TrEMBL record:
L-methionine binds at residues 443-445, 496, 611. This is 5-methyltetrahydropteroyltriglutamate--homocysteine methyltransferase. Zn(2+) 1 binds at residues 653, 655, 677, 738. Its cofactor is Zn(2+). Belongs to the vitamin-B12 independent methionine synthase family. GO terms for molecular function: 5-methyltetrahydropteroyltriglutamate-homocysteine S-methyltransferase activity; zinc ion binding.
Length: 767
């Protein structure tokens, strides 16, 4: 009998309960005990849901108060000096300080230095989830210092569940961290392993039988010394007395397959959605007695599984392995919304094609029954229902638009090229815009006040008429423009009060998208996103942003920047189609954005920003697949941007990703100005510019908008000077590292005031 396995479950609650509890606690409106009570209920609900679905070993340790990598850092005492308490203790406030920074103001939740920068945050492999990067010092020590993982295992066991602790494996943990100084972080492995041994001993003492160690780095093209580290690490952990399930996901093991199968563990999880081709060789070489956890249900998308196809893929494995076959999602369901049953407004046909986390658990059970008893009436009913979904999607007239397909097919190389090169364009733009040295701007959004959110909600609910809503948003835009003029910013934005989300907003206005009420997915901490669903061919059939931007420009003589989201980011931050290629879908979106860019220019907007923060995120994990992706993704951006005249300045923005290794491709996007996040890493991300001559203008973010800290002027001056050592100061812009949507007005005004003063000081020094 095959078993059901799950790698992890969404931790935010079916209606974002954790988010609201976190933010209430951070605001001082509720107690730590109240926050902990919300977390406990979410955990117990999750365990009950998984057990009811037939999951044999309920995962624990997949819950996190902010981020699971951060939890592991706290568990082993990896706390940067600036966040260490005087007595060395670690608690939830320590984690929150590492994630958000501290303001310097007295607080009942303070735990460390009066004012300290947040830890660097970046993307979790090729997902839109963000993790807190561990900071390792050369004299780093590791010891059990924070008991959350152990306490939650005790909690679940006490509640009657058979559990499987889930945590990041030692090699991937070191891989994801950064050395603070000139040393090799892999050299820390020998001192890290005893801490893992101690943690596993705690689980063993609780009666735990299986532990899941996630090693997603195994799907990467690892250097030899990192590959060799796996043998060292898992030999050290092999005497724990526990059964170890080694979990890989997001791609194929490929060249690391023999390595994974040689480790002294008891089972292996592989991703058969991203890399179905690896099943046959893994089965042929699986050691005797090992468990194979087959990730056959897509943990990262929302389409129902083709049960007939999935069952056919696993039939041989079931015959070979019996109860040692564990049927599983491809990865943690952290990346999936919680429950489709909550959705009451979706088109019934489209809803019939979907499965969220709870429904994916049910699919596991259906698949198990089909494999074991294919002729049973329940199995036949499940197969017929699945077949109907497959047929419905393939033939639906909701999906296919011949005019869109033809437009993509007719694309030529000219569609992705500006009229002139950057050297000629920038002269025309400088003459037209007449900007000073170190021009200042922001990334687009300004604080979304309760009044803004209430007005949007009232409009959606029909409680506010369209003229009333437009008037309310225009009043907000007036205030934002007035505030920016008072601050003396050089290139203004309209503040985006009408936008709920930078992807959802555009998807709501493009054909081929649909939307949910409650399909929230955690992006980081309390930040949740509700990705649109791309179900069909994409087309622009209405104004996306022109009317708002045109109104804002009418209020000022300064340049007003049009704000759009780029095609690759819309693709990556949506639940996209699995029936056409990502490239084709990206080019459909690019053409729709191109139409909007041209319309903005025709409305008199001469600075247009097309954000592509997800360009690096979408990069395949295997080097052999990356060139093809970078070619079509940068082409898609250029298609969206290249319909305008030379004097129109195109900006793009990227944040919270390691993009140094794709700088040539970023340059190939040929944006006139790129703004990037660099403040959390203290301009470290600009080191690549020492060896790569970036050809166009660049705005390295000079302060971290995810922290409530108000940066000092001198601190920003020093950051810009540091950037000027790598990039010609004549090509530097001054801006925050991301949008200001989540901030409050007092801190926003204070930070931007200091930023503008920093730019003016640099101009004076340059004069």
């Amino acid at each position: 009998m095959a078993q059901l396995n799950n790698l992890g479950y969404p931790r935010v609650g079916d209606f974002r309960q954790l988010k609201f509890a976190q933010e209430s606690y951070w605001a001082g409106k509720s107690s730590l005990e109240e926050l902990q009570a919300v977390g406990k209920k979410i955990r117990h609900d999750n365990w009950q849901t998984q057990q009811a679905a037939g999951v044999n070993l309920v995962p624990v340790g997949d819950f996190a108060w902010y981020d699971h990598v951060l939890t592991l850092s706290a568990t082993f005492g990896v706390i940067p000096a600036r966040h260490q308490s005087k007595d060395g203790s670690i608690n939830l406030d320590t984690l929150f300080a590492m994630a958000r920074g501290t303001t310097g103001e007295s607080s009942e939740h303070s735990c460390c230095a009066p004012q300290s920068a947040a830890c660097e945050m970046t993307k979790w492999f090729d997902t839109n989830y963000h993790y807190l990067v561990p900071e390792f010092s050369a004299d780093q020590t590791f010891q059990l210092s924070f008991s959350q993982l152990i306490d939650e295992a005790k909690e679940a066991i006490a509640a009657g569940y058979q559990v499987k602790p889930v945590l990041l494996g030692p090699v991937t943990y070191l891989w994801l961290g950064k050395a603070q100084g000139d040393f090799d972080r892999l050299s820390l492995l020998d001192s890290l392993l005893p801490a893992y041994q101690a943690l596993l001993a705690e689980f063993k003492a609780l009666g735990v039988e299986w532990v899941q160690l996630d090693e997603p780095a195994l799907v990467l093209d690892l250097p030899k010394d990192w590959r060799d580290a796996y043998q060292v690490a898992y030999q050290a952990l092999s005497n724990s007395g526990l059964n170890i399930l080694l979990a890989s996901y997001f791609d194929s093991l490929a060249d690391n397959q023999s390595l994974a199968l040689s480790l002294p563990v008891n089972g292996l999880h592989i991703d058969l959605v991203r890399a179905p081709e690896q099943l046959k060789p893994v089965l042929a070489n699986l050691p005797e007695g090992w468990v194979l956890s087959a990730g056959i249900i897509n943990g990262r998308n929302i389409w129902k599984t083709d049960l007939r196809s999935a069952a056919a893929k696993l039939t041989g494995a079931a015959a070979q392995l019996g109860e040692n076959l564990w049927i599983a999602p491809s990865c943690s369901l952290l990346h999936s919304p919680v429950d489709l049953d909550s959705e009451q407004k979706l088109d019934p046909t489209i809803k019939s094609w979907l499965a969220f986390a709870k429904q994916k658990l049910n699919e596991l059970g259906q698949l198990k029954a089909i494999i074991e008893s294919p002729s049973a009436s329940e199995s036949q009913a499940a197969l017929l229902a699945s077949d109907e979904v497959v047929t419905s999607r393939a033939s639906s007239d909701k999906i296919h638009r011949e005019d869109v397909k033809q437009r993509v097919a007719n694309l030529t190389s000219e569609a992705s090229q500006r009229y002139s090169d950057f050297a000629n364009r920038i002269k025309q733009q400088q003459a037209h815009l007449n900007l000073p040295a170190y021009p200042t701007t922001t990334i687009g959004s300004f604080p979304q006040t309760p009044e803004i959110r209430q007005a949007r909600a009232a409009f959606k609910q029909g409680k506010l008429s369209e003229p009333e809503y437009i008037a309310a948003m225009q009043e907000e835009i007036r205030d934002v423009v007035k505030a920016q003029e008072a601050l003396d910013l050089d290139v203004l934005v309209h503040g985006e009060p009408e936008r709920n989300d930078m992807v959802e907003y555009f998807g709501e206005r493009l054909d081929g998208f649909t939307f949910t009420q409650f399909a929230w997915v955690q992006s980081y901490g309390s930040r949740c996103v509700k990705p649109p669903i791309i179900y069909g061919d994409v087309k622009r059939s209405q104004d996306l942003s022109v009317s708002w931007t045109e109104f804002a420009q009418s209020l000022t003589n300064k340049p007003m920047k049009g704000m759009l989201t780029g095609p690759v980011t819309i693709l990556c931050w949506s639940f996209n189609r699995d029936d056409i290629s990502r490239e084709t879908c990206a080019k459909q979106i690019a053409l729709a954005i191109r139409d909007e860019v041209v319309a903005l220019e025709q409305a008199g907007i001469k600075v247009i920003q097309i954000d592509e923060p997800a360009l690096r995120e979408g990069l395949p994990l295997k080097a052999s697949q990356q060139t093809e992706y970078l070619n079509w993704s940068t082409e898609a951006f250029r298609i969206s941007a290249s319909g305008v005249k030379d004097e129109t300045q195109i900006h793009t923005h990227m944040c919270y990703c390691e993009f140094n290794d794709i700088l040539p491709s970023i340059a190939a996007m040929d944006a006139d100005v790129i703004t990037i996040e660099t403040s959390r890493s203290n301009m470290e991300l600009l080191e690549a510019f020492n060896t790569f001559s970036y050809p166009n203008d660049i705005g390295p973010g000079v302060y971290d908008i995810h922290s409530p800290n108000v940066p000092e002027k001198e601190w920003m001056v020093n950051l810009i000077k540091a950037a000027g050592k790598r990039i010609n100061p004549e090509r530097l812009w001054v801006n925050p590292d991301c949008g200001l949507k989540t901030r409050k007005w007092p801190e926003t005004n204070a930070a931007l005031k200091n930023m503008v003063e920093a730019a003016k000081q640099l101009r004076q020094e340059q004069a």
